[in-house]
């Protein structure tokens, strides 16, 4: 009897310890669940009112989503397998989600009911990803700042854009990868990062910050392990599709290369206003690459010359913001990518709130603009010049936040996260590591 009781004691201690660690996160999970529900209710006029089936009403009710029409556009209603039967314009992670739900939806697939069920099932998964993402962000922020994750759980822009596309899935994977890195579990970090990149392309930008801080600290083994895990995971999910359905697999990459300047991007403004050089469609790809390279060079210079090494989350935010500012398209839901990293980089309410106002204005402006350019609907929408105030509004507010982060890097005493004397709690092997390389400008 004693031996049985003694065997149960370690298990009870483990469960008790886990419960004590989990309790502080439960309110955040509930708030994230509330955000997920509010985002679902925002789509009410489309989900329950039929506005998805009306080209104008889905815009004037501000409840558009990509998910519902893609049931038909990607031929899922015809039973076609993504990539193998029909080329899909998304990475394989999203294609896998599409195929999973396609297989389990009952009844006649070629009905509005099937498309609605496809949306509902996708929303359930995205809601879970939001809750998981909020908890991961709270863990990255650390015990003293875990409540900063409320910005992700209940941000107005998140509620408006959460279910436009599958971005929340990539967010959960990317945040999981960075949390694993912070816990010094390099292989797990690499696997999750590879899966995130296979779901949405933007997490690729986080490799740059990891490389720069590795260069500065000389911690090459953990970095190389993570990169091996990233490459292995990405190849594991991509190579089978590449081998058996290459034309379908490459559709995402060909589409990304060939698409013109599109809604939301600064390049779209330059193109529509016919600016010399910047508005030249033939030079768009070159200009995009050069502008992103210029941003990245500046971030690298900052990372390698700063008196105190930047925090990993600061560099992740800067590189991701640079990617968004220079991209050919800037969809409303891309705000979901940036919210966690903007807050982790600089949890200051005023600039974040200003940015949220700009993002919300853009959300409403894009749908009104799309209505306004439809024949006979100009009176229902807004003109191009009004729309472009929203395009520039969010770009300017993001640049302002980037400037504050740069200032915090150059003057670390102004960094709110470091006020408790810590170095880089989410930096993993970079935390408290001595510098092995620092570029001196003078």
TrEMBL record:
The alphabetized UniProt keywords are: Cell membrane, Membrane, Transferase, Transmembrane, Transmembrane helix
Q: Which residues form the signal peptide?
A: none
Q: Write down the membrane topology.
A: Multi-pass membrane protein
Source species, domain of life? Bacteria
Q: Name one Pfam family in it.
A: GT87
Protein location = Cell membrane
**Is Transferase tagged as a keyword?**
yes
Has the keyword Transferase been applied to this entry?
yes
**Membrane-spanning segments:** 22-42, 123-143, 187-211, 223-246, 287-306, 312-331, 352-371, 391-410
The entry sums up its family as follows: Belongs to the glycosyltransferase 87 family.
Identification of the protein by name: Glycosyltransferase 87 family protein
Species of the source: Planomonospora alba
